[in-house]
Amino acid sequence: MQTLPLLPGPVSGRRVRFSRIWPICTVLDLKTTRIESHVTLSDGIQVAVGAHGLWKVKLHAAIDKETGAFTVAGAGVDHKCDCGKFLHTQVDAELKKSAYWRRCRDLHARFHQEAARVLQLALAGKKAAAQEAMDPDSEFARISRSLTAEMLKWRSAV
Fold first, then answer.
1. Distances (CA, A) of 115 to 7, 28, 29, 52
2. Residue extents of the structural domains in the chain
3. pTM of the model
């Protein structure tokens, strides 16, 4: 079972179920979503892509506030975030032999290396440099787009 951070929104304080959007997710509170343990690979990939996007939102928030809910060392670790937990623990050994999984794992690790670099800039008070490091033409953005695209290719192949 994994948790995904949620953005604050109109559900403010209520328990809701996103059955029409992601039938495999249950909102437990404003901060977490539980991925049901019986999800298909396709559904798991969909949720992992969403988790990846939400992680970028947290990184933007850290730049804006010059503080974060995670450390530079923590940001550099690729197996503790929700997407990483999915890739490393929920995908079975047979599926880990696929080229899709290997490319996603490698891109995800590179994403976290870049995220740690961006966070280091943000926490050092180098807000402009951190924002530039996340610009659409940056290495961070290129890796992020590649990871999302690869995960979606994998999802469409299953």
1. 19, 27, 26, 11
2. 40-157
3. 0.75
